[in-house]
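C-alpha cells help. Consider this.
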Amino acid sequence: MPPLDLNLLRVLDALFSQGSVSGAARTLGLTQPGVSIALRRLRDHFGDDLFVRQGGAMVPTALAEGLREPVLRTLATIQSEILPAGRFDPARSDRSFTISLSDLGDLVFLPDLMARLRERAPGVTVHSVAADPAQLIDGMARGTIDLAIGHLTDANSASLFEQTLFVQHFVCLVRGDHPTIGDTLTLDQFLALDHIVVSQEGRSQERFERQVRELGLDRRIALHSPHFMSVPLLVAGSDMITVVPQAVGRIYARLLGLKLLPLPFTVPGVELRQFWHRRSHTDPAVSWLRRLVAECFIGRDPTQARDSVFWSDYSE
C-alpha cells in the first residue's frame, strides 16, 4: 500500500465532522470538486467507500468508523507536538473563534468579552454555540469548538484542560411589588409560591434542582422550560418565583425592576470555568483567547464589577 498523503487525513476528519462534501469544503477552505477528488483518493487507498449516502447526509462505513479515533489522535499530535507554534497577532488577525456558552453564558460573559475583543482584535469573529457535554468534547476534539465557558456537570475528559474563573451562587427572583414577599424570604414562603424552573441538562440549574430534591423540599412547579429568555418577563408579570444564578439575577433585577433575594436554605455555589482541549493547548490564537478570558473573569463576576466594560453602566 503506497504512503498516505497526510493532507487527506484533514479531509477525512472534516468529512467526519461535517457529514457532507460541501460542509467539509467550507471547513477546509477548499472547493467541493477538490474535496471530492480527495475522497476518491481516500477510497482508492483504503479500498472502501468510507462514506455512503443516507438521507441528506454522508454516513461513515464500518471501516471509516474504525479510522475516526486514530485520525483524530494523529492530527492532534501533529498540531500540538510537530508543527511549530507560530505567532498570533490579534490586532491583524481575522481568525474565527467558536465558543460554547449557554444562553445565560451569552448574557453574562459576552458583553465584556466582546468589548475587549473589539478593542484588541477588531478583525476576529466569534461564533457562540450551545453544546451539551458530549457534543462539546467531540467538537473540541475535532477543532470545531475552541473554548467553553460556564458550568458543565459532565465535562469529564482526560483530554480537556480547565481553569476556574469565579464561584456563582443561586438567588431568588420575584416581581418588585410582590403582594406577599417583602425584603426577606422565609422557607415557608418559598415553598408556598408557584415556581418557574428552567431545566438544562449538564448545566448549573440541573445541579441546583438535584440539591433541592436531596434536601427533600416539596414545591409546586407551575412552569418547566428549557430556556431562560421568557423567565424574567413571566416573573415581572405574575406572583411566581424563580431561582437563577446570581449574575443573571442581578441583570434581570436591574433591567426589569425585579426583587433579588437570597435563598432561604443553603446550597453550595458552582464554579464557572473555561475549558479547552489538548488539541488546541499550544495553538497561539486559542492561548491568547484563554488569557483574555482569564483577564476578564478570574475572581470577577462581571455583573458585580464596577470596572466592567459593559455592566458598570447598570451598577446598583
User: Anything to note?
Assistant: The two ends are 70 Å apart (CA to CA).
